[in-house]
Write a structure and sequence with these properties.
3 helices; mainly alpha
């Protein structure tokens, strides 16, 4: 009788340990992945801001005019394309980085979803 009780207890202990290990692998792994994603997004934002400082702020003071409504992503794309006509030298990837940065800075204030 006592050995059956001990056996049940060992089986339940192993089962619960397995559930805890699986849960930590599933949810803990997502936490690490989310943290890496946030970290890589922050690095991309810093890189985009550095690029923005070097390429845009030589001629423009800022995009933070509180009187103007925000632009959509398409609007920023057009602005960057117009700036190419004024001699802005950017690769397609750099243009996308600046467009994303400028859109994210004013996100929530745009006239329509971008």
């Amino acid at each position: 009788m006592k050995s059956a009780w001990v056996r049940k207890r060992v089986v339940w202990t192993i089962f619960l340990a397995g559930v805890l290990v699986c849960g930590s692998l599933i949810f803990g792994g997502q936490g690490v992945a989310m943290q890496e994603t946030k970290s890589s997004k922050k690095m991309m934002d810093e890189k985009a801001y550095t690029l923005y400082q070097s390429k845009c702020l030589g001629c423009h003071l800022s995009v933070a005019d509180p009187e103007k409504p925000g632009r959509t992503r398409d609007d920023w794309h057009l602005v960057v394309q117009v700036m190419h006509g004024y001699g802005l030298d950017l690769t397609a990837e750099e243009s996308d980085m600046i467009i994303d940065l400028l859109y994210d800075l004013r996100k929530g204030m745009e006239r329509e979803a971008g």
